[in-house]
Structures are given as C-alpha cells and as structure tokens.
C-alpha cells in the first residue's frame, strides 16, 4: 500500500456561528492549504464530508461549489455522507485516492452548519439517519438510545451516576484550554449529575452540543511530501478501519459494545501492525458521555467493564499513559456532524507535530488514533496516525 | 497502480416505479452479487451513489441501511454525492478503495427514487445543485442552460433544429430495444422538433426524463478475480478522470464546451494510455440532446463543430466506428440521477462481456468509455473499461 501523509490542517472555531456553511468550509480549507504550503500546487481532488448541507443550508453539490470558491477548479470534487462520521469517511476516501495513485494532493474538508434552523428542525433532519421502523416512529432519539446503553452498563458493571459525570468533567476541563472549542468552561460532577435530564440517566451535560464549524486537512503522496520538504512535519496514515453494524440497535447482540468499533479498530490495528497499547493519544466519539467508556473498551484501551477505573484514576488525562480526548472531545469541542471526523484527525495530527494548543500538548506522542461514529454506531471509521 | 476489475452487475428497470428507494437498491445490488458469484464472499465496502435520498425519500444514512438490508454487515458503508454524477463518483471511490488495497471486494450501488414527490418539488430539490446567486434566483434551470448552449452551438456551427432531433431519435431507437429503458418507443424527427417547447430551442423530447431506478456493479482486486476464475468475464478499469468547472455557467470560457469533460477525459486517456480513437462504444451523459454533441467533441470523438456529421452519417449508430449510447442514453434509458453513472458503467461492462440486450450488442468491442455529468457540467467523471 502506497504511503499517505497528512501535511497540514485548518479549523474554524466550533460553536453557534454567524458564518455561512461555505464561509466556514473556506476558512478551514484555506487554513489547511496555508499550513501545508500547497497554495502553489495543483490539487487533484477535494473531498467534502458533510451530513445534510441540502437540509440545513439549502446547498447541493457542495464539493464542486467549494472547488469553485477556493479557486482550485478543475480539481475533482466529491461529497461523502455517512451521517456524523462523514468527516472521517471523507478522509478514508482521500486516503484511498492518494494511495491508489489517482491523486497526488487531496484536500479533505469536513463541515456542518446546524444552528441556522430551529431546534426541532435539526433533530428532525438528524433523525433520518436512524431506523424509522424500529426507532424513530416510537420516539427513539440518539439520546434515548444512549440512555439505554448507560442503564445497561450501570446494571452490568456497577457504574454510578457520579462516576459517569467524570467524563464530561474531563472533557470540559480540556475544552477550557482549547481556543476553538464550543464550550471553554469547566464544570463539576455536581453540575453534570444534577443538570436537566435529557433521557434518564443522561443529563444535558452528558450530551454533545449542536454546533457549526469546519475542519480540513491536506493529504499527499510520499513524492509530494518529499518535494515540499515536509517529511519531518507530516504524519503518516498507518491504519484505517471502517465497519458498519445493524441499523437498528435492537438488532445487535449487545447494548454495551458497538461491534462496528470492534471491527473497525481491529482492521486499523491490523493495517498498522500495532495494538491498542501503542496509542499515546486518541480522539474518541463521545457524542454522549457513556460512549467514551464503551469506545475505550471496544478499541481495547480498557478491559470490558474497566474503562471507569482508568478515568477515575486519571490515566486518560493529559500526561497519563493514554490521553483520551485531550482537546475536549465532541462534548466540549462541539459536534458539527460532518466536521467532527476531520477535526479529530486534525487534533491528532497537531498532537503528533507538537502543535496542539498550549496546555493540551501531550509529551511527544508517537501514535494517535481517532474514532468517529455515524448514526448510533451504524458506521464507524478508525484512523491511526504516526509522527514522522 | 493496482488493477481493478468489474466482475458483475445488476440493474432494475428505469421508469416511474412503485418500489421504494431501498427496494430498488436491493434489487440492483442482489443482481450484481449473483452475477459476480460473490454471495459467499465477505464484502469490505459498499459505496452508494445517490443525490438526494433524504429529500426524495426521507432516508438518511443510506449506505449503512443498505449494508444491513443486504446482510453484509460489518462491511464499511459510504454514500457519495456529486449531483447527477453521484453514481460514477461512487464508482471512482470504489476503484480507489480496491486499488489502494483497503478493500478486496466492493459493491457500488447507484440509486435514485425521484417520482414519489410532486413534479415541482423534484425540480426544487434538484435546483440546489446549481448556482443560486447566478442562476437559480433568476429562474435558471438545467433545461434553460442547455437551451443557451444549443442556441450558441446553432449560431457557431449552423446546427439546425431538425438535425438536433436526430439525437433523441437515435436514443429512442436504441431504447426501444432495451428492456430496462424508461422509454421503449421509437420517435421521429418531426415529433421531436414539434413537441412542446421546454426552453427554446429545446423541446420535451430533447430532455431526459425524471426516473426511478438503481444499478450496481461489483469491483474486485486481481487476486479475488483470479480466485473466482472470472478473469475472462471481467472488465478491467483502465482509466478514470474526474474534474470540476466553475459552478455558474456564466463564469466559464465557453458555452459550447464543458471544460470538465475535456479535463476528465484527458486524465482518463492518459491513465489508460490510449486516445479517443480507441473507443468502440461509449455511454455519454445526454441529459439534453445538445449535450451528446458537445460531449463527443469535448472527448475527442469528433472535431469541434463536427459531431453532427458523425450523427447524420450514422457513424455513432450500432455497427458504426463508435457506438454512442447504444442502450438509449439518459434520454431513453432514463435518468434516476444517482443511478445513471453506475448504469452507464454496467451497460459498458455488458457490452465488453458480450451480454448487452439482444439487438444492442456491439460487435466484439475492446474499449468502452462512460461519461457522467454532475450539475450543468460542474462535475464530470470519465471511466474507461477494457474487455478481458
């Protein structure tokens, strides 16, 4: 397999923003082009990960519109959609285009503009990614499914409400130091446990927000990286895994494990030739607090039922053996769905390059992993990067 | 670049159909799996090309839903959207996944279900792929843009209304022999020239219909093809080109040429190491009759301003030096947008394998080309296949 490198990245602030979908994508893309010193190169492809640009912003054919606005015509444009994993799926497509030889330099942009529509409308648009027959028509929502998972995990492994609150507390602590995060304010176990219930036992602070934002990375072949003299400041993509699960949660074998994570992370590890103990820093899809726990166990960072031990003992904090969501995760960084996967990869890339935000930089990490969920575990992409 | 093969295909009838989006996609996919003898293999990836499943059918996360319904979980699922070129863009992604080594067997499905919504709604949904600032807000539609192109071509090259009618007449003649075509009825120059004007000089018969339908192909690596013993009945993908153009037609240098076609076909020819004279059979994106003429010239099948000479002299008919749209093209086969690109590739594949519909089979073609447009020339994908 021909090697592929991340050579630069850009990102907007995440949050409730006034800029348009296109403006956000432009800002992240231009940031990535400048950061990767590729402004004078000819891009072969632009891949845009975005879940619902038509519905949220009334914009179709987003990839070619962006190619136009960025002045990179006739660069081939493609939009990729896999629900909230659209960003990492776009990255996978970018990887395969470079590795296959179809492209030498590809721009991958993740973007979502969710806060222009009324709150109820956003939920309605997003609910289309779930099973209508088994979930939506009975009032099922992502938060309701996460609540089922949390209940079952509490039953099986004795997790308490206050223990679970440690996850958002860590996320907010990290987010408070991330200048691009949606939430930059610390919180406490008391606040998380006692805030408004969204779906019992989950409260408002267990749930990632609805956000606007965009992130972008530039991918290149080894030859381009060498020509640009960027081998020392790039990160190699050494593993990609991608798996699905049955669409309706009730058709799955377990509530406390997402099998697509197990499959995707195993595939990524196999490709990289490493195991979970090699991970120094990771960005996991904590759309709901309980998912950070489940994800750690499915990936193999923690034994089954034991993830809470690591969190309770601070082992997933900055400076611990494995830093989990050092830039705030979906909970604090925010969750503009199509942008999230690319933002995770950008944050991992900056960690490996030593350019993470001040106070959030892990000490010389070698291996970074990202994990991005589409639907409620319907689709999962795991990516592993290695520092130069 | 690692070789990639098309080893099987499936397709539904195109037309105004009662089956749901999912049902259509299932039918085409199962057809392709059976045809490729891969029912017992483990698919790595499913790539779905579909333009607007959320808006037309209220379905999100289509790729994982299909993986579920086809029983191929945990196969990684991705939806690709590039307007009406979504099908060939999905094929490009499938190609790169196999060629990069990320996948050994990939199922590519193109599908669109457009006829469930009211006529005005469909146009409104599709118009999002155009430039709002420069086109849609002034009442611009794809047909209006095609009319501008036709007018200009008539002015520049002396094309007459009745000559232009020869294009739909050929499409309908071929479609009348294609059991899966939307329209299976011949027409005449008189009928085309004198039917209802959609956007002068174009009439109803110059425009492809709004259709439902799905097509699918199975892609595999050389190793899998050899293991299945299918080398003699597969087609190798020897060229792929993909290019964009400025979003608004008024920003382009020419009205009578789509530069993205020039760029994409040149890239595909470069990759294949052949030129336009090598093409035995091709499926071109004739969403409007004038486009078949423009496309032939942009690809290099005809000299600039001379495509009509080939058509008038029957040289693009079955049995001529290059058969153009032998299965009816978008005009007669129909145009369920996301399905079209995959249907073109399927039809090209069947020609190379010698399995085209009776009376439509070209005599032992070696090289087939497909050409698929997204937006009004915003995005173009050209694919070249070679018989075993």
User: From the alpha-carbon coordinates, what is the Rg of chain A to the nearest angstrom?
Assistant: 19 Å
Largest β sheet strand count, sense and barrel closure of chain A: 10 strands, mixed
Low-confidence stretches of chain A: none
Q: Whole-number average pLDDT of chain A? A: 96
Question: In the CATH hierarchy, what is the architecture of the domain at 4-118 and 210-233 in chain A at level 2?
Answer: 3-Layer(aba) Sandwich
Residue share in helix of chain A? 25-40%
How far do the termini of chain A sit from each other?
18 Å
> What percent strand of chain A?
15-25%
Q: Count of helices of chain A?
A: 15
Q: Which outline of chain A best applies?
A: globular
Q: By helix and strand content of chain A, what is the structural category?
A: alpha/beta
Number of strands of chain A: 12
- Fold-level CATH name of the domain at 4-118 and 210-233 in chain A: Peroxisomal Thiolase, Chain A, domain 1
- By CATH reckoning, the class of the domain at 4-118 and 210-233 in chain A would read Alpha Beta
Task: Spell the H/E element sequence of chain A.
Answer: EHEHHEHEHHHHHEEEHEHEHHEHHEE
Describe the oligomeric state of these chains in a short phrase.
homodimer
> Strands across the major sheet of chain A, in which order?
3-2-4-7-1-8-12-11-9-10
The CATH superfamily of the domain at 4-118 and 210-233 in chain A is Thiolase/Chalcone synthase
Pair with the biggest interface: A-B, 64 and 64 residues
């Amino acid at each position: 397999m021909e090697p592929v490198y991340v050579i630069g990245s850009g990102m907007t602030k995440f949050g409730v923003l006034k800029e348009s979908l296109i403006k956000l994508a432009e800002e992240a893309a231009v940031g990535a082009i400048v950061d990767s010193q590729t402004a004078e190169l000819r891009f072969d492809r632009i891949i845009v990960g975005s879940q619902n640009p038509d519905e949220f912003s009334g914009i179709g054919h987003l990839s070619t519109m962006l190619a136009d606005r960025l002045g990179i015509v006739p660069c081939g444009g493609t939009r990729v959609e896999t629900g909230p994993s659209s960003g990492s799926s776009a990255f996978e497509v970018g990887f395969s285009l470079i590795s296959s030889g179809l492209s030498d330099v590809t721009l991958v942009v993740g973007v979502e503009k969710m806060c222009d529509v009324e709150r109820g409308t956003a939920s309605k648009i997003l609910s289309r990614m779930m099973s209508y027959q088994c979930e939506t028509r009975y009032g099922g929502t992502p938060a309701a499914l996460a609540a089922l998972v949390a209940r079952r995990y509490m039953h099986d492994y004795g997790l308490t409400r206050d223990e679970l609150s440690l996850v958002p507390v860590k996320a907010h602590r990290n987010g408070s130091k991330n200048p691009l995060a949606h939430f930059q304010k610390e919180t406490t176990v008391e606040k998380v446990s006692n805030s408004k219930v969204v779906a019992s036992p989950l409260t408002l602070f267990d749930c990632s927000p609805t956000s606007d934002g965009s992130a972008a990375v530039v991918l290149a072949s080894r030859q381009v990286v060498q020509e640009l003299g960027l081998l020392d400041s790039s990160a190699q993509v050494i593993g990609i895994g991608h798996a699905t699960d049955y669409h309706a949660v009730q058709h799955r074998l377990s509530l406390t494990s997402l099998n697509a994570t197990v499959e995707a992370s195993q595939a990524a590890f196999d490709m990289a030739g490493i195991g979970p103990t090699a991970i120094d820093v990771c960005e996991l899809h904590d759309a709901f607090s309980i998912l950070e726990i489940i994800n750690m166990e499915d990936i193999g960072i923690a034994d089954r039922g034991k993830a809470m031990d690591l969190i309770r003992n601070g082992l997933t904090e900055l400076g611990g053996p494995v830093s989990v969501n050092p830039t705030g995760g979906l909970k604090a960084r925010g969750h503009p769905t199509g942008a999230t996967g690319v933002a995770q990869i950008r944050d991992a890339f900056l960690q490996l390059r030593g350019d993470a935000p001040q106070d959030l930089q892990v000490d010389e990490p070698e291996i970074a992993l990202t994990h991005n969920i589409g639907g409620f575990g319907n689709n999962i992409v795991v990516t592993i990067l290695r520092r130069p």
